[in-house]
Amino acid sequence: MTAALAEQGTPARVPAQDPPAPPATPRRRPRRERAFDDVPRWQIYLPLALYLLFTLVPFYWMLLFAVRPAGSTSLVPWPVTTAHFEKVWNERSFGIFFQNSMIVGVATLVATTTVALAGGYALARFDFRIKNAFMLALLCSQFIPGALMLVPLFEIFRNLQMINSLGSVVIAETVFQLPLSMILISGFIKNVPVSLEEAAWVDGCSRMRAFRAVVLPLLRPGLVAVGSFAFVHSWNHFLFALMFLSEQDKQTIPVGLNTLIGADSVDLGALAAGGVIAAVPVVIVFAFIQKWLITGFSAGAVKG
Amino acid sequence: MAHAAAVAQQPRAGRRRTGTGAAPRRLPYLLIAPAGLLMLGFIAYPVLSVFYYSLRHYNVTKPWKNGYAGLENYTRAFTEDPLFWSTLAFSAKWVVVQVGLQLALGLVLALLVNQTFVGRAVARSLVFSPWAVSGVLTTTIWMLLYNPSTGMSRYLADVGIGTYGTSVLSDTGTVFWAAVVAELWRGVPFFAILILADLQSIPKDLYEAASVDGANRMRQFLHITLPHLKDAIILSTLLRAVWEFNNVDLLYTLTGGGPAGVTTTLPLMIANTGIEGHDFGYASALTTVAFVILLFCSILYLRLSKFGGDRS
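^ inputs. structure came back:
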């Protein structure tokens, strides 16, 4: 997976796998290329090491507090305890929060990818009268923030009697994920040559079957990336869940974390353990989509 | 047989492609209908209702006062509410500092991990990892680091840096930079990813040609890299500025807008007045003001950067 990430945009002369040791004299590159490609090594490693320190120390700190016994001040987490995890999972109902977050995340993923796939296909393959207006609406909606919509959305869900139902959060998350997802997916579909589809029609496939048999398999990486964004985003997002769900057994993980942060006597071990629980699915998904991340962005988001 | 079928299907396939048949003409509308309806119902309608509410007194806890208000909600914001102007000033400061630093650090980071070096793949995934972390999780992590009795300051004080028991989050002098650092931690990787994606699309032979002509690295950066990145930088800066202005997760949970309201942004003030204060009318007026500011700044920014104009 990491090797795949290294491959992108790397000139062919560099092996995909990083060699275990710095190259010795025989592997030296031709002199001419040094001028544009070879920075002195320390100018890369030193700033990168500093930045890595800034990136990783906070993660280490959370892990440390999560597994270190209460009252310990050691910077090395030994002996390791699972007491904080058990407490957060059972007493602070993170078990229920986790389940609710999973439901919201998976439902948002499914809804966003299906609706965006249909819309993205229309935008990529057809010319129709309101297409430009629709594209403009998609781009404009990027500038309309979720936080500013809280008041009217709260009103709408109250009228629909959906306050305190996970469905309200799923709808809100899906709606705000849709524009970017649709732009990304239509970008991915445009990259699939129309001639492939036409060949399938010529062979007697219906449009639907041609799409399923020819286009969909080629879209898989893009769909995985878009779906993962939708999942991670709704897993992390806090405000909709906080505002639309007032019963405790309907809450999601970020709201649970916030109650731990706001507690009068802050139980740091529990807070850290809750943080680790919140991070685990995101880390798994992130590891999964990494290799599509940069290509995904260059295909759709940046080029708009 | 397959051939015969192909011949029989050909006219139909051709008609579908040109989109003159009845079914294909309706098909695109059917396909965008779910997305379109969702966005009409949950984005367009709410936007319009915000304008409507902003002209009314609408407070759930004071139903006897509800009714048409005209511009009263707006005059209240501009002339009576001292919090409004300080909030506006803080929002501007927050966006400018945050986006400026993210752009500078993100550009450096993207240029660094775009180089070829041993361990690049691992370095990339590690420096980008905070990107996936949410506002509340970021808050959780930095709460642990900023904790006055067991956080970073205690260990730093042990080796002689700073003093024991300082809480950067309850001091009005330090809370701004404490929040900025926490937000940078997860914001810089995102910026770097966007810029890196564009860096990779620069043809390598441009640099080879430039170095044959004797251009040094600085000149190559100024004359090849920067012009190429221009559009991506403009777009991602704008998106990021809007996002940093709108996002409430981090400040809501890290500082709660305090101490003494010094870290309240306009959207945070809207959430507090609307949802917690139940004053929907005033919150809607504030929302409208925020819309107008966003729109105005976006147009101004795109005009100033000549984005989308003719670049002949």
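Chain B touches chain A through 118 residues (CB under 8 Å). The first helix of chain B runs from residue 2 to 18.
thumbs up if we can close this ticket
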